[in-house]
């Protein structure tokens, strides 16, 4: 097909570890894990660390005890952001049409580049991989395909290949779909995987064999989008030039020290509301949140959680945030401040590929979130609180934290 489009998903390998190795080449070949702050968890592992068995998300104190051979490095998000920008600049030089998806992932439009570079689509992947390595010293895995969903699958499969580049065209795509478990498909999580298996659908291929009406009835419009994308029909195009914020945060010091958990939750919910409002304003959702808790004697606790799916609604996010808060909270401590950090953003408009489960509920929440914003505009800030008793404890004008400040 002449006007067939091709998209590459470029994914940096163990990105934070690769950044540390770029800054300190002596780490090459050694088991290395990057940890989110001094009391944090493992958030990136080298191949050698994975081989040792270091699990993702393990708290540092446990990791050190169980895997003492591994080197643990505190995350330097500032450096990673800078390196990420350099990687993205190389991609942009290669193709004018790219969409940055996260700090270490981007879609790159390959359509028409075969003529420009005189290479086929697979060779284009190899060439781009080489350029990123030569110019920034960051290894990348690349999946090339006619649609984003298939490109994502191809890049996952490429991880097990020698050159870490994989092409899933119209014919090879079908083979790939047959070998792909249904819950490995982008946007189909464990929960939806179980539901699909209940219908006898075990592989991505089996999903694409169901007819449109059947899928639409059970999984809505987004289910159909996923089916088409799996079949190599691009529904979600590359949208470029959108700079998403790196993180949004909010925190404040209390006027008086407190150990009252309900008060902390109430304060936290105010910060969550403020961040959600800012998220909705830029039409983004976040996939990771962190909660920061500072004691009277300036000990800082910080816990982060992957939300599983992108969220922008107060009630949804509070559930996770309160769990983090409760994990760090001790009633014998006096606290001086609490805060929240949102990270890992996706554009709401780009989200149709993700999650077609719980659609009606999600849509309702989205509407509710927007109504909150309208009400506030009319009646003033914090007119609506998300479900907590508002204790009349005044607080000082706060400060703004970033993840780096927190750690
Ligand atoms: Mg990656």
Description:
The chain has about 400 residues and is an alpha+beta fold. The protein has a domain at about 245-405: DNA polymerase, Y-family, little finger domain (Dna Ligase, domain 1, 2-Layer Sandwich). It contains 15 helices and 12 strands. A 5-stranded mixed sheet has the order 5-6-1-7-8. The protein has a 4-stranded antiparallel sheet with strand order 9-12-10-11, with helices on one face. The longest helix has 21 residues, at about 260-280. The chain binds magnesium ion. Magnesium ion (MG) binds near residues 11, 12, 15 and 104. Magnesium ion binds near residues 11 and 104.
Essential attributes:
alpha+beta, Dna Ligase, domain 1, disordered C terminus, 407 residues, four-stranded antiparallel sheet, five-stranded mixed sheet, 15 helices, binds magnesium ion
List the helices and strands and how they pair.
Blueprint: E1 7-12, H1 15-23, E2 32-35, E3 42-45, H2 47-52, H3 60-66, E4 71-74, H4 77-94, E5 98-102, E6 105-109, H5 113-117, H6 121-136, E7 140-145, H7 148-158, E8 165-167, H8 170-179, H9 190-198, H10 204-208, H11 212-230, E9 247-258, H12 261-281, E10 284-295, E11 300-311, H13 314-328, E12 335-347, H14 359-379, H15 403-406
Parallel strand pairs: 2-4, 7-8
Antiparallel strand pairs: 1-6, 1-7, 2-3, 5-6, 9-12, 10-11, 10-12
Helix pairs in contact: 4-6, 12-13
The structure holds magnesium ion.
The site of magnesium ion (MG) has 4 residues, from β1.
